[in-house]
Amino acid sequence: MIPESVFCDIIAMRGGKTMRIKQHPILSFTYDNKITFFYEDKEVHGYKGDTIASALHALGVKKLSHSVEDKRPRGFYCAIGNCASCNMVVNGTPNVRTCVTLLEDGMKVYTQTNKGELL
Amino acid sequence: MIEKELVIIGGGPAGLSAAKVAAEAGLHSLVIERDFKVGGQLVKQTHMFFGSEKQYAKSRGIDIAGILINDVIKYDELIDVMTETTVVGIYDENVITLLKGEEYIKIKAKAIIVATGASEKFLAFENNDLPGVYGAGAVQTLMNVHGVLPGQRVVMVGSGNIGLIVSYQLLQAGVKVVKVLEASQQIGGYKVHASKLRRLGVEIDVKTSIKKAIGTDYLERIEIAKLDENWEFIDGTEEQIEVDALCISVGLSPLSNILSMAGAKMKYVSSLGGLVPMIDHHHETTVKNIFVAGDVCGVEEASSAIVEGYYTGLLVSERLGYKHNNFDELYIDFKSQLENLRSGPFGEKTRLGLKEITR
């Protein structure tokens, strides 16, 4: 289990408000289809249309992965499935590109700390 | 092995447009896209496009994506689309290997159009790998596709059109844009975009760049400094700024790896964004029946990618024996549209670059 403090700072900085856009001059976003998933075994929520990475970012989770050698924290960078910086372990599968993988109900998502076991 | 007439790698503006014209000519195609949706980067462009009516100018990118997707749906008997599928290799005789989830698929194609687009360039500075340092396009995706803000206080590195437009879109979403940094002496993008930002109180600092990112698990602050005429930081000009996101917008480079793998002759052309394939007037690479369209053979605007897609789709279908009913008329039309898009001072880089790679 991870400490509550992981869901950080961003939310705290916004005075408890979420990072979700509520009002926009051009776009409209609806938040009625909630998706429940698990981040580091903790039950959390995103919305239909989220990728795993966008749902986590909205929760204030920026650190998604680690560099292989020095274990430096990694977040997403390209959001088009190219840079591999957002790879996480999803439902037991490592190296899932969370920026181009749609969030699904019941997904179990973990931060990746190594290259990922193939077998 | 599955056999296909035309396989198009990439479902962005170039790929979708190529599929449309090929379908008009009666040619069947398969579009392969690694994202879960097609439309490429248009799906996050909330601004209106320049250009002429033919490339849907004055429409927003998101709406142009809708038009291109509708065109493809109209021809759904002739166009197949595979999403969440990544091409992992091109082998001899146009054999393409794909990964869809855990499934490994082999396809033999009569012709391939590589329309993989481009990806954002990175910039070297201390701690540039900290979470919170994002590509400007990535931030656009997060905000405009998923409705999630990248942070509260942002600095943009790079004042090209993407940097300026994304800064404006950040403001629209309610994010404070502290500054835009530009390493050179001049703002890179159109004046109209820069003026808009300035009117909204965003400073654009020229001859200034990011020196380092500071933070433990994610970005908390940045240090910027002035640059001298040799692009070196000037000691004593450092300034620290509190930010929770930094956007990097220093250009794009073609996603051409798959072409190198296929054995196409490549050339590094900096005005086109990086490593690009040598092509002929049919947009065919040095490998027979492997064609290219869009940013993969030179980074330009989406409008150019659309017309290049139409143009290449037209020529490939003719090659495979499906000559379009209006071939001659369209050929001239697409060629002149491309010439128009590349005319003027902003098109000069592209014109010179394309000369270097066109046989």
Write structural notes for this entry.
The complex is a heterodimer of chains A (119) and B (359). By secondary structure, chain A is an alpha+beta fold. Chain A has a single domain (4-111), classed as 2Fe-2S iron-sulphur cluster binding domain, sarcosine oxidase, alpha subunit, N-terminal domain (Ubiquitin-like (UB roll)), CATH 3.10.20. Helix content of chain A is 10%, strand content 24%. A 5-stranded mixed sheet of chain A has the order 2-1-7-5-6, covered by helices on one side. In chain A, strands 3-4 form a two-stranded antiparallel sheet. Chain B has 359 residues and is an alpha/beta fold. Chain B has 2 domains: 2-119 and 252-357, FAD/NAD(P)-binding domain, CATH 3.50.50.60; 122-248, FAD/NAD(P)-binding domain (3-Layer(bba) Sandwich), CATH 3.50.50.60. In chain B, strands 1, 2, 3, 4, 5, 6 and 19 form a 7-stranded mixed sheet that branches. In chain B, strand 17 and strand 18 form a beta hairpin. The A-B interface holds A 9-10, 13-14, 19-21, 23-27, 29, 49-51, 54, 57-58, 62-64, 67, 72-83, 85, 99-102 and B 34-36, 41, 46, 60, 62, 84, 86, 119-120, 122, 129-135, 137-139, 141-152, 172-174, 217-218, 244, 255.
